UniProtKB/TrEMBL annotation:
This is Uncharacterized protein. InterPro entries: Leu-rich_rpt, LRR_dom_sf. It comes from the Eukaryota. It comes from Candida tropicalis (strain ATCC MYA-3404 / T1).
Amino acid sequence: MEWLISSNLLECTKLKSLFLVHNNLLSFDTACLPKSLTILNLSSNKIKTLVGDFSSTNIEKLYLQHNDLRNSFSNRWEQRVFFGPSIKFVDVICNHLSKYDVAGILDDLSNKPQFDILNVEQSLCVDLPDPYKEQARKVRKLNH
């Protein structure tokens, strides 16, 4: 992660897409991302911890599949916003998530005007906890 911080991505003010696939990252700090970024792919790493959030970014497409983000989103309802207003697509397939993680993600995404697709395992969409059923109905598409 230190090499990523020292790469001075914040100075890349015209960077639109960043693909950090298969880098064996254990954590990721969102503070190193430039505001110009619209696509972020962190797939197939070993991320267990997301430091910070994406609320002040312009990210439209976020790929987080094939990491280990178990319990990273289950308590989002009690914290500040996680995704920014530009978010359209989120992929969290194969992250060992619980239905409570999915509920936490939906809680935030259902309030985003441009949100369109959440890609998550079908088994996690069944029997969402009661407080989240209404928010899940607001989601335009739920891929599985």
